[in-house]
Amino acid sequence: MRSVERILAVFESFSVERSSLSLQEISERIELPKSTTFRIVQSLERAGYLVRLEDQQYCLSFRFTRLAGLVRGTLGIREIARPFMTELAETTKETVSLHTVSGPYRVCIDSISTVTAPLRAVVQAGEQIPLQAGSGSKVLMAYMSKADLTPLLPAATKATKQTKAAFLEELQRVRENGYAVSHGERLMGISAISAPIMGVDGQVHYCLSVGAPTVRMQMHEKNFIKLVVAAAANISRQFGGKNQ
């Protein structure tokens, strides 16, 4: 199992920004001795998964393109996220939802609830919520381009009763922390924790959320944050991206 993890670590060391790496750089990124790294890289080169360039750097081969073509074309974010959402809902005993952006709205793609208590957060698939307040909206807005974010700021600052500067600072903290928490921002007495789902292009088009009555959420907030962030990271990896 260790050898498999090491091979995967080599593959994961490449990125859009660094599509070719020297042996030393790979060694540093996977945190293994250069001699060990060389043996792994040499085996992957012989197997056709890595190519050694003229400048002695390595890059991924076109073999990955062929393998990528074997991925089911219909495999979407909902199918990928479902197992992790189900596990998260069963662990937290709260409502778990998946969201994306559609114009000025946050749209719920899927929702799972295992809550048996009468007091619970209700989120339905297909529900559209203005991109203003709430942890899900803030996560999606935090990773938007300036051009897409700017038109949304007046309504968002009004809804959250913040200045533009304060709201942008909060979005920056969301990016740094890798999650957002809200208490009663969108609905009184309801809290939520959301984390971004990274795509293969490094962009965030989706987020994962757990919603619950504030009285219950505050009892488990720290643990729920860890669970949501971990689930979002797992979905990201399956979706081809990699969380912070």
Automatic annotation (TrEMBL):
Pfam families: HTH_IclR, IclR_C. Residues 63-241 form the IclR-ED domain. One of its GO terms (biological process) is negative regulation of DNA-templated transcription. The keyword DNA-binding applies. It comes from the Bacteria. Residues 1-62 form the HTH iclR-type domain. Keywords: DNA-binding, Transcription, Transcription regulation. GO terms for molecular function: DNA binding; DNA-binding transcription factor activity. PROSITE patterns: HTH_ICLR, ICLR_ED. PANTHER family: HELIX-TURN-HELIX TRANSCRIPTIONAL REGULATOR, ICLR FAMILY (PTHR30136), HTH-TYPE TRANSCRIPTIONAL REGULATOR RV1719 (PTHR30136:SF35). This is IclR family transcriptional regulator. It comes from Trinickia symbiotica.
